[in-house]
Amino acid sequence: MTSHTSSVSFLENLTDITPQNILTRLTKEVICEASFCLKNVTHHTPLLEMPWLSHKIKGNAFLKLENMQNTGSFKTRGIYIKLLSLSEEEKQRGIITMSAGNHALGVAYYAQKMGIKATIIMPDNTSITMVENARHYGASVILQGKNMVEAKDFALQLMKKHKYTFIHPFNDPYIIAGQGTIGLEMLTEVPDLDVLLVPIGGGGLAAGICIAAKAINPNLHIIGVQSEYCAATAEILFPNTLPSDPCYVSQTLAEGIAVQFPGELNLAILAEHLDDCLVVPEKYIQSAIESLISYSKIVAEGAGAIGTAGLMYAPDMFHNKRVGAIVTGGNIDPRTLSSVLSHSSKDHGCLMRCQIETDDSPTTLGQLSHIIGKAGGQIFELSQKKSISKIPARMTFIKAVIETRNSQHARDVFQALVTNGFAAQILEV
User: Fold this and answer.
1) pLDDT at 6
2) What is the model's pLDDT at position 8?
3) Dihedral of the CA atoms 345, 348, 349, 352 (nearest 10)?
């Protein structure tokens, strides 16, 4: 870790930024300076071609693995640049922010590294894992409010009371500059990309990448990706991309980009440089999380997988194209991940639930295991009930959950049980 100093000339160019002047003040050159500042404090994450995705789109698909960044997310890039801009007096007073996710971890991480007191307001329903991770990095965490709006209101009250500096998650020129360094890295490694897919929540990441990437290659096609459940930017800039029957719910797997309205600074940049939006159905985000694990051994949260989801949802858009997308983060709650993988297996017809009536014999379970294994099935769960009054004393009911390759294979495994003399009944495939 290098020494942390705010005596960096380019930071002065980012004061007094407005939506009207941001395009002239926040330039590729500024982002290059930010990249230099980040050189020894963040990871230069890999950009890898994914053969299975390339096959899917009949082109070349590259993923930038920001899930391997400090704290498991791209967020630390912009946060470090923001904290670098603070005066010594501001650092002494401390900082405050509101977040239920990766922004909180990034603020806590670099505040600890730079010796700055950090207070983070999280909604009451924030996952225990995220709360404890933020505390692990030394932040003072306060649970307050039913949602992010109430958490922000409380954060602003404390900011005024204690004269803290507020660290906005996305509507800040320093944050935008830091996030834009991802675009520099991607086009340095693969300069002939045709398309960039960028997730959009509050828009800081997309705005920074747009400035850097368009300055390098004005012909590059940049597409924002959003969930159908939180498509605010698409609704504003590209309403024709919205589904005919949009869904409006309070929960999405892509909770990291579930923002009601993009930042004003970001919107000014995106209105100028963003070429299109792709609004992705929620089920494709779930499929992307599962596919990244199955095919690439990459763990991604919902928002982190949405670029991949876009490629899986609309592969025809990218035929014969060289496409870059970003796995923006990997901080998925273990329970959520377990649920996603379980649902994915069910959706693919890979889990079969069946009930088997058989003799209550010591060898029964062994025989079942042998038959299921020989047929290529994998026992996922097995339970046995002997005390059922409706069956004879020497009989038993066994309920089995069997993992199979697909629905046809599930029927083949079931037929193997029947052929070998077991009275079996499929409950669900």
Assistant:
1) 46
2) 57
3) 0
In angstroms, the CA 361 to CA 254 distance is 49
Cβ pair 361, 348 in contact under 8 A = no
Measured CA to CA in angstroms, residue 102 lies from 91, 154, 221 at distances of 21, 19, 27
Nearest CA to 207 among 19, 15, 12? 19
Phi, psi of 208 (to 5 degrees): -60, -45
Q: Over 80: is that where the pLDDT of 251 sits? A: no
SS3 of 46, please? coil
pLDDT band, residue 260 (cuts 50/70/90) = confident
* pTM of this prediction exceeds 0.85: no
Residue 205: give the domain boundaries.
10-73+174-343
Give the count of alpha carbons within 13 A of 220, CB side only: 30
Chosen domain end from 163, 187, 209:
163
Residues 315 and 353 in one domain: no
On whether both 212 and 322 belong to a single domain, the answer is yes
Q: Are residues 141 and 37 in the same domain?
A: no
